[in-house]
Design goal:
The chain is α/β, with parallel strands linked by helices. It has 16 helices and eleven strands.
Length: 664
Amino acid sequence: MGTSVDGAQPRPRRGSEMTDFGDTSPTRRISASVKPGGSGRPLQICEIDFEDNCVKCCHENLEVIAENLKILNETVQQRQALAASKAAPGTTASPPVELKVAVVAVMGMYRTGKSFLLDLLLRYLRNQDKGPLTRFDPKKSWRMAEQTYENESYCWLGSESRISEGAQGDNERGFQWRSGVEKCTKGIWLWSHPFLVTEDDDPLAVLVMDTQGAWDSQMSSEQSSCIFGITSMLSSKLIYNLQNRISEEKIDNLDYFTTYAGIVIQEAREKAQSTKVAREQRGNLSDDDEEEEAGMGDIHFLVRDWEYFEDGWSLDQCTKQVSDHLMTHLDPNRVAVEERRETITRLHNLFRSVNLCCLPHPGPRIPKSNWKGTISDIDSDFLYLLTHFFANLSHGEYPLKVAAPLGQELTASSFTRVVETLVSAFHNARPDATSLRKAFVTCETHRAKEDALAAFNAAIGSTGKTEIQDPETMEALLAQQRSRQLSAFKIRIRSLFTGSSKEEDAWREELMAEVSHVLEEKSKWIADRNRTAYTQATWKLVATPTLVLPITLSVLSLPHLLLYGAVGVGGAAHLNARAGHEGVRGWFAPDVLERVFEDCKNFAEQRWTDVVQMMYVARRCDKLPSQISDSLTGGSAQAVAAGVAAQGAAAAAAVQTAAAKHQS
């Protein structure tokens, strides 16, 4: 149960969000792990070194998460390829898209139940694809303190009687949490296995993040600022965990934590605007650029132990009270003090949306040090409103979007690099605008390089796969596109370097050389592939009337029984080979038949590609006979020349030997 603020007025909520906890529409699906039955674990990706007063990145753990993202990305692309193969004839299939990453994070003061909350969120996500999330009677209307629904009505809790995730150090099921007053989370942690969310056929990997609580007597204010700065810049959905109510002190804390990030984000927006203008002048502004804006994701203020819901209130009445509380504290137009108004305005400028949810106390047994996670001890009203919060968090008014720290979208391949770059900006536990700006420039240059290569590939298209070009024409096309993308890259990074120091000049030259090398290597690979395909198509064109056609006619002229027998023996041999490769018994197992069908399909596609390429060569026979002749005789001419040279050398050696004998 929550509401939101965007600017001065709250955006209208969708009516279905008031009661719909289990979105079963085909546009929203969540699967629980990278591999079927896979169980994740929390991994620390960032820690505070108190001796050296610096922030360190846990590279090995990042690599584990990156590998899981890679596996999930490959799985998604395989599904996309399979769907494309089953598309209706004449339908243009979209190319596989790299999986993008969203991050849901929670931060706040220490010992406010952040890890406990995230454990429940993990359980909610795990059970999204296992049937209905709730068993609510549509004839019953929920009312506060009336025990409308028992805990068994919340299917997403599972069948266990205890919440075992993370409790008592059991971190194989969730983030570690501990009842009582002792803290247990240090640094920044990520759940190792991403959750796959599919919305409107666009896949998105979701990572869940937990952070060390601020003001915990261990971290200084600067160290807390580093942890919160990294968390807020990495997250798509940031849950700011509060106790009892929103207060000016807590807003000031958040403003302090995001000060450094705000400086570089403002600069990033200015740079992005200048780059957008430059690209618009060149005429290559895409639709995505219209919506691009460097900033943070959505922030959800989550007030715990809210005491002001009256008994008997409906969900609408509770939502109205929450909305009033949000507008009172976070609407710039309702704040009279100028300094407070500036603080709130900064938050609205940083985040895509500002939202609020209030939850009652989860139950008197929960804070006790001997609580073992018994589900029956959790208050049913807390579970009802928590379910509503989770539903809106994952697919509510502001759906999950890709995380874009410093304007650099997180993808399966860029995850490790972007996180390490961002953490390096906070290395000294006292970041300044210079270090954050350098991190921003690093991310933007990586993004520019990826865009240059993507634009180059898009310009070349599928040439060299099914279609071919004359080798000289292809090399000219590649050189033209290579020069165009290098010029675009140079213009794009020019706005990122404001100074003229030797360091920046060297950095620019290094970037240009790196991009030039990548494009040249890609061009060479495409040109070689095209030249090979062109030569092979030429030989196939000549071989078809002289070899292929006579052999085919000879085979077809065989007696029917002999022909059928040969086909049967060949088919049986192929089935037997596939069965052995798949490690199953029986030629007609589903996996074997599927692979044989794929083989036949691939064979037909390859023959069609041969026909297309031979037709291209045939059309050029009249126009470029010398070039076709060179393609046909180039190899044999070189062999003849080599043979003549060898014979000449042998003859000369024989003459010299005879002359030597004659002299002696």
